[in-house]
Amino acid sequence: MNTAGQVIRCKAAVAWEAGKPLVIEEVDVAPPQKDEVRLKILYTSLCHTDVYFWEAKGQTPLFPRIFGHEAGGIVESVGEGVTDLQPGDHVLPVFTGECQQCRHCKSSESNMCDLLRINTDRGVMISDGQSRFSKDGKPIYHFVGTSTFSEYTVCHSGCVTKIDPQAPLDKVCVLSCGISTGLGATLNVAKPTKGSTVAIFGLGAVGLAAAEGARIAGASRIIGIDLNAARFENAKKFGVTECVNPKDHDKPVQEVIVAMTDGGVDRSVECTGNINAMISAFECVHDGWGVAVLVGVPNKDDAFKTHPMNLLNERTLKGTFFGNYKPKTDLPSVVAKYMNKELELEKFITHQLPFSEINKAFDYMLKGEGLRCMITMGH
Question: Is 173 among the catalytic positions?
Fold first, then answer.
């Protein structure tokens, strides 16, 4: 049945208000407009960012809304002007985009597209300021341009990456957000050399992906730092060689790491968003060559404080957004790393649920159980 150009009625998990369980509803999904594509979502997973905006504790609440941004699917139809995607393509929708025209997209050093960079406040499409989702004629808002907790969704074509059709979507869909963020922070930004030492702050999914990057790069020691000791055993599967709990020490954890590593680690990657962890990550790298990379998103009132001598002593502090990957240009190569067995994704997927039980995925995340919950649509 050809659905191109028609409104599609399908199931979506709608968040009607902050912090309340999602409700599976029948919604209408309008056809894609200029430069947009409509996707059939086959698998989606839950990332902490969805939970953060669903709780709406620190930001502008916007409801009703369809969350979800880590997913894999197939192109159902394309709007006017879309030439690089066609119905049937296997794709990953991504919360940030690549318009391929702006100064950032044309720069080899940036992936922060002017047009399609993440915007958590916008609940409508860029082209006309309208939502493509509705129920009983009333609009339901989008989330970060993806809204994958729906059997069908509409995205800007610049936020959709075409991938190898042989790649299993129920595995590679985790590359559309968290895993690529951590992996790229290490491989593209920290760039540890073979045999080097790396400290990873925060052993959630993003931090473990950063550790996986250090393992792939051939680091000799990968030190994991977390306040939750229950995460330590599992971290070894991702190449972490030793773990430190700051609560076990009566001095700042950066001093503990400096003592363990004869002056500091070669590289550190901070994946918590906690301002103290960020300072520790910077102050635990070795002078002369140490590089610290910040990945976690801080609270809006945080300020970073360190002595300028730490920089004058030739330490480097860097930040990264989505692991410095350009979604359309670079993600296919990350999928290829999985396909050629260089990158392991199965160990990130700790739970599986049918779409009808999506609220259980929120429970797992809120309890800190597991890493990624794979949700199968159409069930």
Answer: no
State yes or no: is 113 an active-site residue: yes
243 counts as catalytic? no
Q: Which residues pair with 155 in a beta bridge?
A: 37
Q: Quick one: pLDDT at residue 60? A: 83
Q: Is 227 exposed, middle or buried (0-12, 13-18, 19+ CB in 10 A)?
A: middle
Per-residue pLDDT tens over the stretch 91-111: 999 999 999 999 999 999 999
By three-state DSSP, how is residue 247 classified?
helix
User: Helix-strand-coil percent breakdown of the chain, rounded to 5?
Assistant: 30, 25, 45
Query: For residue 378, what pLDDT band results from cuts at 50, 70 and 90?
Result: confident
Residue 233 belongs to what H/E stretch? Answer: helix 232-235
User: Are 149 and 11 in contact, with CB atoms under 8 Å apart?
Assistant: no
Q: Tell me: the pLDDT tens digits for 150-182? A: 999 999 999 999 999 999 999 999 999 999 999
250, 242 in Cβ contact below 8 A?
no
How would DSSP label each residue in 77-143?
A: EE-TT--S--TT-EEEE-SS---SSSHHHH-TT----TTTS--SS--S-TTTS--SEEETTEEEB-S
Tokens of 191: 């760039």
Q: Which of 69, 142, 221, 286 is catalytic?
A: 69
Residue 352, classed as helix, strand or coil, is strand
Catalytic residue among 70, 76, 212, 270: 70
Using only C-alpha atoms, the chain has a radius of gyration, in whole angstroms, of: 21
The whole model's pTM is what? Answer: 0.96
